[in-house]
Design goal:
Radius of gyration: 18 Å
Helix content: over 70%
Strand content: under 5%
Low-confidence stretches: 200-212
Shape: globular
Mean pLDDT: 89
Number of domains: 1
Number of helices: 10
Length: 212
């Protein structure tokens, strides 16, 4: 793996530090505690979507459009996926803070379906993050690893799609995110079709998030 702050584990450290600093800055930005939590929730919802899409499409984009950018994205998909887990972890903490400081507002923003969908999603995130290291990936074996990351990745895509689809009629600001998710679906589908017509990969544990 190439050295540099924008590659490998330094990249994960940099993105995590920026996410944490941004969240702290929004919490200290004035106003009531609940408003600070809402700022963090909105910001991390966007950063989580971006990082998830970068990790989830890394192999698909490289297969369809191999270039310097997609090679970097594919090479760092493990760290991008873990950065997504960090972002969504901060998102969860902000939601918990909102539930404590403004329980009525929290109840209005969420519902049983959202909580169940989100809860299952976080279980997948934890499991995928825990197996995004060479030793843990090898421990569960290539078949179980691929099944977990494929099912988990698509479940998270579905969760994002449901959440944003519910808001499309309420606010046009959600349309770009919905378009991005549709683009991800098209990319993954195109890469799967290209894989069926191309050479098959050899045996072994695939790198984390390489499920396109």
């Amino acid at each position: 793996m190439r050295a540099g702050v924008l590659n490998g584990w330094p990249l994960l450290g940099l993105v995590s530090a920026l996410l944490a600093a941004g969240a702290l800055g929004m919490l200290a930005g004035g106003g009531e505690a609940a408003e600070g939590s809402r700022r963090v929730i909105r910001a991390t919802a966007r950063s989580s979507l971006l990082l998830f899409c970068l990790a989830f499409t890394a192999s698909a984009l490289f297969r369809l459009v191999p270039n310097v950018w997609t090679a970097w994205q594919r090479r760092n998909r493990r760290q991008l996926g873990l950065a997504f887990a960090v972002s969504h972890g901060i998102h969860a903490l902000a939601l918990a803070a909102l539930a404590l400081t403004a329980p009525i507002l929290f109840a209005e923003m969420t519902g049983t379906g959202t909580l169940v969908l989100g809860g299952v999603g976080y279980l997948f995130i934890l499991a995928m993050a825990a197996t995004s290291f060479d030793r843990s990936a090898a421990a569960i074996g290539p078949r179980a690893w691929k099944r977990l990351h494929t099912i988990g990745g698509w479940f998270l895509w579905f969760s994002f799609a449901v959440i944003y689809a519910r808001r499309l009629a309420l606010d046009i600001d959600y349309w770009p995110a919905a378009a991005i998710l549709l683009g991800v679906l098209a990319l993954r589908t195109g890469a799967a079709m290209a894989r069926q017509g191309g050479p098959q990969a050899g045996p072994g544990v695939a790198p984390p998030h390489d499920t396109a």
